[in-house]
Amino acid sequence: MSITHTSLTGCGIAASALALLVACGQSSAPVSEAQPIEQRQPQAEPTLVQAANYTYTRTCDGSAAALLPDGRIVIGNDEDSVLRIYNLAGGAPAAEPDLREALKLVSKKGEADIEAAAVVGDRIYWVTSHGLNSSGELELDRYRFFATATDANGVAMPTVFRDDLLKDPKFPSVDNAKASEAKPGEGGWNIEAMAPGPNGSLLFGFRSPLTDTPSGSAMVVPLTNPAEFLAKGAPVFSAPIPLDLGGRGIRDMVLINGRYLLIAGEVSDGKRFDLYLWDGPAKGNPPRKLAADLSDLNPEALVDLGGGKILVLSDEGDTELPQYGDKKCKNKNVKAAERRFHGQVFSLAI
Fold first, then answer.
1. What is the pLDDT along the chain (350 residues), one digit of tens a residue?
2. Beta bridge partners of 202
3. Cα–Cα distance, 267 to 298 (Å, whole number)
4. Cβ partners under 8 Å of residue 6, min gap 6
5. Quick one: how far is CA 309 from the chain centroid?
6. Which residues fall within 8 angstroms of residue 270, CB to CB, at 6 or more apart?
7. Residue 287 CB: number of other CB atoms within 10 A?
8. Rounded to two decimals, what is the model's pTM?
9. How far is Cα 266 from Cα 273, in angstroms, rounded to an integer?
10. Where are the alpha helices (DSSP H) in the chain?
11. Domains of the chain
């Protein structure tokens, strides 16, 4: 199998191509794409009721997650480049495939900053933040768009990736130059959400930047050709869709029963979170805030479990651990076995 690698020319790197063999046991047959999404008429306003709590170990957060066909969940992390496969009820991961080689990461710490996942057919798309690090420095590893196919073990290694998704952004209502130069917490590029869109597209949700409108709306950007782009083509974007989330960005989004559930969160490190329901790009309706108790969570990722159940995963990397002298969970000296984060299941009646 070949891996196509297009360099991030927007960051001053010359375009190149390379091929390598990935010994992962994955079939070379192309994965299928889902059929176009039906836009359903909204019914009664939904309510959310907490139904269960789970604890997951060996990492401090799940910044991106997807449901596997066997009912387990696969989680990506913004602190390393390992996918972890868990039983829904929590505990230690059953498998931890490391993506550093497949994604050709160049930094010693091997952190791709995986932020979002979306299931389309038997393919799971993944995207990293596509922004500078917290110090405002360029790290090329943070520019990755790739996909994994599901297999008997959970997921197979990606066989292709792109690093030029935001090579030359020209989105209206946004200061593109400023977004390319600013830290993520100060309005720089920061993709944190992704979900299936109509007709095989993907919708990217940005935590930042917000639009230049007075209210500062969050931004959803449709990529109309994800399969073609991943294979060899150029990305084709539709016009950004502004969403009024009270001056906040999008932390994650998931498609459920034809509508989208979104986490709204601060561009910086504030703790003001809410869940919103949005009818999607075809309706033109504004998102509506839902009543949900998120006080025990730092919500980072959403998973549609089916049957009206939604898993909300919490980022607990900044949780202080007394056994380590109040060092944070994400501190490099904390043993993997003592790292943990939580998820809560909500019942969503639509």
1. 434 444 434 434 333 332 322 333 343 334 444 444 444 444 456 678 888 999 999 999 999 999 999 999 999 999 899 999 999 999 999 999 999 999 999 998 889 999 999 999 889 999 999 999 999 999 999 999 999 998 877 899 999 999 999 998 999 999 999 999 999 999 999 999 999 999 999 999 999 999 998 789 999 999 999 999 999 899 999 999 999 999 999 999 999 999 999 999 999 988 899 999 999 998 889 999 999 999 999 999 999 999 999 999 999 999 999 999 999 999 999 999 999 999 999 998 76
2. 196, 223
3. 14
4. 15, 16, 17, 162, 163, 164
5. 19
6. none
7. 23
8. 0.86
9. 7
10. 176-181, 226-231
11. 9-26+73-297 (2.110.10)
Q: Which two tokens stand for residue 240?
A: 């950004």
Q: Token match 């390598």: residue?
A: 20
The separation between the first and the last C-alpha atoms of the chain, rounded to the nearest angstrom, is 43
Helix and strand totals (H; E) in the chain: 2, 22
Tokens linked to 102: 């497949």
Tokens of 307: 């049957």
Tell me the DSSP string of 149-194. EEETTEEPPPS-EES-TTSS---TTS-HHHHHHS-GGGT--EEEEE
